[in-house]
Design brief:
The protein has 50 residues and is mainly α. It contains one helix and no strands. It starts with 28 loop residues before the first helix and ends in a 10-residue tail after the last helix.
Length: 50
């Protein structure tokens, strides 16, 4: 049993100053890459075979 109080909701969005690594599992890779490039300006730096 956990006696700690429940976490309070954040006052606003988390401010991200740097993102080093992210792994995403998606159904349609090409469509997802296109979305993240257009919306967030992400750059694809590698792709695993398979």
């Amino acid at each position: 049993m956990n006696d700690r109080p429940a976490p309070r909701p954040a006052d606003g969005p988390i401010r991200v100053t740097r993102l080093n690594h992210a792994v995403l599992f998606v159904r349609d890779l090409d469509r997802s890459v296109d979305f993240y490039r257009r919306v967030f300006g992400f750059e694809e730096i590698g792709r695993e075979a398979g």
